[in-house]
Design goal:
With about 425 residues, the chain is of the alpha/beta class. About 45% of the residues lie in helices and about 10% in strands. A seven-stranded mixed beta sheet has the order 2-8-7-6-5-3-4, with helices on both faces. Strands 9-12-11 form a three-stranded antiparallel beta sheet. The chain has a two-stranded parallel sheet with strand order 1-10. Strand 3, helix 7 (about 130-140) and strand 4 (about 145) form a beta-alpha-beta unit. Bound molecules: pyridoxal-5'-phosphate.
Amino acid sequence: MLHWVELDHCMQIKYNIRTLKPSATLAINEYSNELIRQGKKVYKLGFGQSPFPVPDEVVNALIEHAHEKDYLPVKGLYVLREAVASYHTRRTMMSVTPEDVLIGPGSKELLFIAQLSFNGDLIVPAPSWVSYSPQAQITQKECFWIDTSSNPKRLLNASLLESFCSMHPDRRFMVILNYPSNPTGATYTSSELKALAEVARKYKLLIISDEIYGELTHNGEHRSLTEFYREGTIVSSGLSKWCGAGGWRLGTFTFPEELRWLSDAMAVVASETFTATSAPIQYAAVKAFEFGPNIELYVNQSRVILQCISQYVYGELTSVGLTMPEPQGGFYLFPDFAQFREKLNKKGITTSSQLCRRILEETGVALLPGVDFGQSPEELSARLSYVDFDGKKALDYIKQHGNVKDINAVAPNMVIACQQLKEWLL
Ligand SMILES: Cc1ncc(COP(=O)(O)O)c(C=O)c1O
């Protein structure tokens, strides 16, 4: 029989898991909730959740299918795969079949099992969403961050990708690109995508194009990398952002035929882990991806609201000297506080983590530090989610007024949060 000392000795968590901390976005949410419990007012600009309700007809579809109880096929409910395929065909004007589609319990899980299944290392731009690199750590891949500070949009561009790949011509890489970007809110033009596609083709890169915010491109003109690099691009999307259904946990991957082997490998992993995505959610998602006129209207109105609020926040923050890429889609801004470095240093603030902690404690505004997105700890940057408002009220407002001229009527917390930040800085 083993004694507890021996057990303690042999029961160990693997080093690559032990050195991880809980996902940064979830941690800030928990700390904000803790401050709220203590009676403090917190402006939740740290967590990137859609403020909008799930459209009524999608909710009704879920109610209608609540009784669905059977396990569904590993790759997803066929009618849903058909709906997702038609949706992507309409969006990209490229023919996508249901066989090209894989459904999972959130795109985060699909991104994870893609990394687990692919034999090669990972390239991501810095800054990038918080979970790509920890997933590489869990799956024991090397993660290469490419610094994008030479690009005002803070996105990976063709010349940065070319210079990295030319130094590693014989290695196999998966690249994850995300646009509109979390954390910068910037997105690509068609010509930028075309240039990236040329480099990707030259070095035979596998690209996961994380387009989860694609529908929320503010001018409604999102273009997909798959249009330019079909053979090597997997498009990642889901219900979480444009359909307001993050907690429903439904993500989609769309593959080219050339990458069916990866989809098959991921399905094997899925069959041994989550089995299949929740049945009622999949039935309801059919309604969402059919993208009928009411959903089209809902998404258009969501975009207008996000555009107005983002322009307001951008205007307020740049007026005091913060710099950041101009918002083009999604929920985020990525302000750089470098102009205030001297003043902040005098307050004892030298890292983005200290910056965000002090801002939260002294103003109630929750932001996420740039370091969580792959920036050096000393870069005084932060991610700001401009979604601390009631999405249902905002949609009702826009139905009545047709626009959002009065930000205070729709997003009063965003107005106060900007004021607080400005006063704290000046
Ligand atoms: C850039 C990006 N990709 C993927 C995800 C994961 O989304 P989900 O797992 O809800 O589909 C998120 C969620 O915040 C995100 O911001």
